[in-house]
Amino acid sequence: SSFNRFARPDELAFCQDKIVFLEENQSVCYWGFDAQGRVWQSVDPDGPDWYEESNTLPDFLWILMHYQLAQGGYPYCGMKSVDEFPDDRAVTDYIDAYGWPLVIDTPGLAIYAQGCQLLWYLYDADDDIVTGIFTSCLHESDFEALLEKHGFCDLG
Prior knowledge:
25% of the residues lie in helices and 37% in strands.
């Protein structure tokens, strides 16, 4: 529950033929899944309007678990602003130079991982990186090394 909030087993709700298992961090929307493993989103879980996500439940959870780690699940977070690069291509070249595997590539979000360290960014519909490159790390020593070597600023 570092970012979006998973329901505890005793909080799972059955609404509109879906099991509601996740609440967005600002309580704006909810996610549920159906018996076929499809994931659905709604602003009102008791209402009639549910919209199908493009990923099946296993893929949705794979993406979400990485994003949960990026958005506060790992305690050490930093950022390098896009203003420090001449263009978005320079940003992606910078990330490629790390040699870390791309583990999440879904519209609007890219996450690279190496052990318990993440590099990630959000991008808009024009593939423009919105703010900058973020790093999230489980261990302080990994985070300190990224700060020192690559000039990330500490968001702690």
